[in-house]
Structure formats: structure tokens, C-alpha cells
Design the sequence.
DNA sequence: TTGAAAGCGCTAACAG
DNA sequence: CTGTTAGCGCTTTCAA
């Protein structure tokens, strides 16, 4: 058994409340006598190796200092730039005395024990969750913040301006003289608002540059590669939805002997270590992933602290920026083969 | 306030213990009358929207069903193949009704609240932790399992046989006629037993093949690249410690116009998506990362369940395998330039 | 600032 | 199988 405040109280000859208060820092020590007593209590606690029992505190206070990180997609949560977001969340919460619990949401309903059972004080929702989950959470009035999804404007959220990202990418290509620009989304990518937003941004930049419709490459990679290389209307510049697509395309172009950027320009999304070291280094749309975690944590902590005032939802938008590297160059029409 | 067993007890006209027992499934319902009662209790609980209060249960039982994932290295925990390990851990624990809490260990001592405060029932330790942390944990007699480190044989652990991995890699190169084989570890890699183990395996395979000493490339990448390209004794085959090194070298060789595998063979460690899609696809030493998480979780859960029997530590070793792809080929002496 | 006392909601030992 | 009765260790009124 571990040491409790009662044992300390007995040794110190004071009440357990006093011990608790001193150890919690609730006693200012304004009067000398009081301060001396406090010191003594702290010393005894130290000697006995006392540690606040977090379970008892959580029970009594009704707060665990735990935060749930809710997500549905295993493959996505620790993918590429998201690891930076997660690490940043962990650190930000840690600084505030909170800790993150990984809470995958699936049919197993095991998330319920954590979320509905009150093991957490709030949750960070990564991307979209099934509606019945978000409903359950809002029924509980559990503070939450959405990351990477602003479809529900009644919830606080942090998102990247994907429209702007798409715009930047396409504008860059248009500036290099590209007229036929494609947007490639791999078939394995789950539906997400960022897809349409990036596409809209691309289309808008193309419109501003007096160009026509963007090509939209969906489906399996073979099809995409095929259309890029052998299609009737061949793009000279391709914008990739994420690191996955850039990796695949870069590889495929190498296989088929299409030189990047001489014969084809490639722009990616997300700036990773691997991106910088591709052959050639990838021109990409990046954003401050750390900031997402930081802002998300901050918003959630605000909400938790101000539960009474039930403050209105906050929305933050992160602006992306274009990082120009070696995978883009002037447009060159490839001859028919 | 949420519904408690007392409210249900009152409505059902039974005692709170009965409610708790029924809801917990402790009542078999062998007798008809009892079964009917149990059904009624469950129905009332359902109607009232009752949820077991996990905080109260944790307090009362002295168990939280939480598991801490302890690590010191942000950059490493979600890196490459480790994400697979983490996801596998999460799932395995989830299946057993446990959840994982991310617990970075650093000077902030915030890990103490989680670990020493009793917010978790056991911990998974990723790689090595400062000694005072492991000591504190064993003082607490908190069940633990070490992942990727077997330096303390008194603790349960799951490790990859890195010696065998190194051996496989070097044997492969030797079989292709390579005589000068180097092992490259980037300077940013923190000291870890796997480095020596892989090197020993490499050396051993070289010995078996009648070759001399392996070259050991350490330090900044420029030096390594320089020695590979311009050194007095130039390796024809390089084994990379991890994905980092393979990415860097593959890129550098491309920059300097050294063809892989025609002029230089490259073998990596860890099999990632990106590895398969490098140009050329990387020959690499891979292992079953899912299994690590699975075994780790299983061992820890065993330990937690058998606290009384304080079972002796279990050690599991995962055997790696060589995945031959396009980055290795017959040895060719490069001419002096 | 301090002490006494009443919880927080569930579990568990015991008697019936 | 059920009810009674103590806790688990900390927080939080309320008086003093």
C-alpha cells in the first residue's frame, strides 16, 4: 500500500485536510507559523515517499487530466506529417499537465469505455468520426476540438486552408507555363473535404491564369500513370494529393523513363523529411504542423477550463506555403509516342 | 450529473450491490426469479442511460485499465516501422479492454503523474529510458515490458534479432561478390544496442565469407558520401542502419551520378512503404512489426493478471528476413576518378 | 488558516 | 443470489 495523506497528517499532528492543502499548494504561508508547519508537512511527505493518488483525485474531482485522441484511421493517424501534429499535441497537453490517450474508434465500441466512461476530460478528434460518436460526445457535453475538418461549424476546429494550398500549387505550375495540369488522388484515399478543397483551389488558379479544366486523376495508380504517359490529353504538370501519390508517381516516372522535371513537373502536398530527399527533391505545399497541435491543444484546454461559460466554438485556419524544389520546371510538351 | 447505480437500485427496488453485480455480469441468472430481476435492472439502466463511471471503478478497484507507452524520443516513436508497432499495441490492448496513454519521458517529470500517480496498470517501454525512471517503475512493482531493448534481462522484453539481420544483409552482399562492405549509421542516431548487434552480424557474415573488416561509416552524411565516392578503400556495398540512411544515400548517389545498383549496392533496414517505392526499390532487412506489438501487449497483460504469482520475465525474439529488391547487384569495382 | 465531516460511485467481504 | 456495511484517498463545504 502506498502512503496517504492520513499517515502524513498523523505524523505531523495536523488534519488530513491541512496536509492535502499544503501539498496541493493551497496554503500561501502568509503567517510564519503556518509556513513553518507547511514546510514540515512537505518534509514528512518527502520522507515517506508520498505521491498523490491520481485515481483518488480523479474520482473526487471528477476530472482525470486525460485527453482522448479519437481517430478512425490507423494508417492515417501516424502518417507523414501527422506524426508532427500528434507529437505537438502530446507536448502541448503535457505542458498543461494533461496526457493523451489513443482512442481508435471502431465497431468494437471500446472507445465508449474511455469517452463515455469518463476517463477523459476532453477529446481531440482527428478528421471525421461516425456521426453517432460525435453525437454521443456532444450529448455528454464533453469538450472537443476537431483537427483537419471544419464541416461542423458548431465545433471548435483547426484546419489547413486546403483551397489556398491547391491554389498555390496550380499557380506555381501555371507560372512555369504549364497549361495542362492534373490533380492526382490515389484510390486508397478515403473521402475527405480536403480533396475537393484542393481541387477547387487548383481550378481557381487555373481559371485566373486563363487555363481550362484541371484533369482529375482518380483510381488505381496504373490508370493514372497510363493517362499521364499515354493519354490523349497529357498533363505536363501533376499535383499530388499527398506524399503517397508523389512517391508513387516519382517512382513510376523513373520506371517509364519520364524525366522529372524535364518532361513532367510534380508538385506534392505535405513537407516531410522524405520529400526533401526524393530524387529529385519534391516541390510541395507545406504547412506548420506543429502549430496545428499547439492551437488544437490550446483551444481544447480553454474549453475545458471555461466549461461554465460555455464559450462559443473557435476556428483556426492554418495557411500553407509553397516550397519550391527540384521537381518542377518549365512546361514542355511531350511528343506523341 | 450522471446516473448512478443507486438511482437504478431505487427504481428497481433492490440494493445497489445487486445492480452493480447484474450490470457487471456477476449474476448468472440461474434461478428464474433472479434472471427476471436481472433483466429488469438492465432495462432500467438502459432507459436511464446508465454508464459505469470509470473513475469511480478505477478508484475502487485500484486499476485504471490504462497502459503507459513510455519513450524518450519523439522523433523515433512514430518513425517508419514503429508506427506499425504502436498501432499493433493499441489494437492488442484495446481487444483486452485496455487503452494506451502516450507518456514521453523527459526532464519535465510530467511522466511521474501518470506513472507514479497510478494512472496506469502497466507500461510499455520503447527503447531505453533513463535509469532513474526504470528504477522508479520497478520500485513501484509496476508491470512492464521492454520493446527493442534487452539490456536488462530481468525485465520482460521483445526484440528483433539484429545480429541475424546484419548477418543476412552482409551475407547477401557477399554472395553477390562484394568484398568491401560498409555499415553506415547516421550521426543523428542515438546510441542503441541494435547498432553494435547489426555490426557484429555483418562482421560475422563477412568472416564466414572470408572477407576482412567491415568499414564503419559514422558521422555526418557528407563524410560518409565522401568516403564512399572518393575514399581510398571504396565499398561496393553499403548496409544502412535505417530508413534514414538509405534515403540519404540513395539521394546522394543520384546527385553524384553513382548508379545504384550498377556501381553501388545498397541494403537497408526496415521495410516501409517508401522503401518499396524508392528508385530503385530498396533491398532491405524487414521484420514483422505487428508481431512485436502483439507479443509485447500479451506479455504485459499476462504480467498484470498474474501479479500475485510474480511470474518470471519473458523474452521474445523476432527473426528478421531479407527482402531482395532492386538496390543490390553484383559487385563492380569502381574506377578511380 | 485549520479541523471536522460529508461525500464522490463503485467494489468487496460478510452474513443471511 | 441478495443486502448490509465498510471502505478506496482525496476534495470540499462549513464552522471555528
Sequence:
Amino acid at each position: 500500500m502506498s502512503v496517504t495523506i492520513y499517515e502524513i497528517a498523523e505524523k505531523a499532528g495536523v488534519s488530513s485536510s491541512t496536509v492535502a492543502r499544503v501539498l496541493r499548494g493551497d496554503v500561501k504561508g502568509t503567517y510564519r507559523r503556518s509556513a513553518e508547519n507547511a514546510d514540515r508537512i512537505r518534509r514528512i511527505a518527502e520522507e515517506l515517499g508520498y505521491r498523490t493518488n491520481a485515481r483518488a483525485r480523479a474520482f473526487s474531482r471528477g476530472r482525470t487530466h486525460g485527453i482522448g485522441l479519437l481517430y478512425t484511421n490507423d494508417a492515417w493517424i501516424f502518417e507523414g506529417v501527422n506524426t508532427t501534429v500528434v507529437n505537438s499535441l502530446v507536448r502541448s497537453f503535457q505542458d498543461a499537465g494533461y496526457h493523451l490517450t489513443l482512442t481508435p474508434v471502431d465497431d468494437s465500441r471500446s472507445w465508449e469505455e474511455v469517452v463515455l466512461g469518463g476517463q477523459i476530460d476532453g477529446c481531440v478528434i482527428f478528421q471525421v468520426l461516425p456521426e453517432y460518436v460525435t453525437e454521443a460526445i456532444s450529448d455528454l457535453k464533453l469538450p472537443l476540438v476537431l483537427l483537419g475538418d471544419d464541416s461542423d461549424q458548431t465545433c471548435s476546429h483547426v484546419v489547413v486552408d486546403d483551397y489556398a494550398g491547391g491554389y498555390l500549387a496550380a499557380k506555381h505550375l501555371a507560372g512555369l507555363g504549364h497549361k495542362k495540369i492534373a490533380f492526382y488522388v490515389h484510390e486508397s484515399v478515403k473521402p475527405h473535404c480536403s480533396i475537393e478543397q484542393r481541387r477547387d483551389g487548383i481550378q481557381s488558379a487555373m481559371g485566373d491564369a486563363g487555363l481550362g479544366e484541371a484533369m482529375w486523376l482518380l483510381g488505381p495508380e496504373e490508370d493514372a500513370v497510363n493517362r499521364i504517359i499515354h493519354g490523349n490529353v497529357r498533363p505536363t504538370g501533376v499535383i499530388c494529393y499527398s506524399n503517397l501519390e508523389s512517391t508513387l508517381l516519382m517512382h513510376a516516372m523513373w520506371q517509364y523513363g519520364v524525366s522529372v522535371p524535364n518532361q513532367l513537373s510534380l508538385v506534392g502536398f505535405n513537407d516531410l523529411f522524405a520529400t526533401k530527399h526524393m530524387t529529385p527533391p519534391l516541390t510541395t505545399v507545406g504547412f506548420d504542423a506543429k502549430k496545428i497541435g499547439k492551437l488544437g491543444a490550446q483551444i481544447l484546454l480553454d474549453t475545458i477550463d471555461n466549461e461554465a461559460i460555455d464559450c462559443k466554438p473557435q476556428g483556426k485556419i492554418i495557411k500553407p506555403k509553397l516550397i519550391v524544389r527540384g521537381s518542377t520546371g518549365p512546361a514542355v510538351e511531350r511528343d506523341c509516342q
Summary: Residues 5 and 16 of chain B are 6 Å apart (CA to CA). The mean pLDDT of chain B is 92. The longest strand of chain B covers residues 66-71.
